[in-house]
Structures are given as C-alpha cells and as structure tokens.
Design goal:
alpha+beta, single chain, 171 residues, Alpha-Beta Plaits, 2 domains
Length: 171
C-alpha cells in the first residue's frame, strides 16, 4: 500500500518541552517525525507522518505520544488557521496572489470560505480546507494535511474521552 506524508499539529497537555526528561522520552520513543514547541500551558506538537491514510497517520501519532509520555493528554488536533501570508509562505506564492485566488479575481474560483475574520478584516482559513483546494489546482505543498472531517471526528473523540481511554484505538 502506498504511503503519503501528512502534516498536522496536536495540542498536548502535560508535556513540558523545557523538561529534559519529557524531551528525552519524546525522542527516545522515535518521534523524530515531529517537533514540539512551548505554547504556555500546553505544547504544540507538529507531525510529518507517513501513513497509508490520514486517520492512520493521526491515530498512530496520538498512540505514539501516549506511549512516550504516559502523563500527557492530547487536547485536540490544531485547526491550523492560516491567513493569505501564511498560505503564500507555504506555497511559494505572493500574499497578493493568494488574496486574488481567494477573491476569485484570479484562478478557477471556488476558493474555500474563510473560517473567520480577525483584526482589521484579515481573513483566516482552515489549512485542512485550503490545502486540498490548492492541490486540486496544481498549487503544491510539501505534505498533505488531514481532511477537515478527520480533524472534526478526532476532536469529537478526544472530547468524549479526555483521559485517553478512547474507544478508538490508534491504528
């Protein structure tokens, strides 16, 4: 079965990225396809995971994290909200090019609907919706993201079973 690389981020409680024992356990368990950064009261762990399917990538990462750091709690799959400048940086295009694609004044139209607007009218999107649209129109990125429905399903499961005793077993 062909494997693909998926990128996604998990918000994790109980993982102190400044604690040598936590980081040691993280890397000793073979999580070399992930990076961890401090986000105050939790960690953001970004994975670049190879798997045959997006849910396999996600649940194997969650399982590996729980094995490496038994005291950690995966809080949610990050929405990976992006603005036009973020999308431009990830695709090698200019922010203006992305704004034009989003506005429909350039390209095929049908750019995903923004998830919201922040600040002074800055539109933000979910990367899980933008990346597949870009790929479908020949605008490449290094790795696939998890489909929005996989993220939503996983987040619902993590809310239902916050202790990690999910009925859903990592694949």
């Amino acid at each position: 079965m062909r494997t693909r690389e998926f990128t996604f981020a998990l918000l994790v409680g109980g993982f102190d990225v400044n604690d040598d024992q936590h980081i040691g356990a993280f890397y000793a368990h073979g999580l070399d396809d992930a990076t961890a950064e401090d986000r105050g009261d939790h960690a953001l762990v970004t994975f670049y995971r190879e798997a045959s399917a997006p849910d396999a990538a996600l649940w194997s990462a969650i399982g590996d994290l729980r094995e490496a750091l038994p005291g950690c709690r995966v809080l949610r799959v990050d929405d990976q909200l992006v603005n036009a400048a973020d999308v431009a940086a990830m695709t090698g295009r200019t922010p203006e090019s992305i704004r034009q694609l989003a506005a429909g004044t350039r390209g095929p139209g049908g750019f995903p609907t923004p998830a919201g607007v922040v600040g002074n009218g800055v539109k933000i999107w979910r990367w899980a919706e933008v990346q597949p649209w870009l790929a479908a129109h020949g605008i490449g990125t290094d790795a696939e993201t998890l489909p929005a429905e996989v993220v939503a399903e996983a987040n619902a499961e993590l809310v239902r079973h916050p202790s990690g005793t999910s009925a859903r077993q990592p694949l």
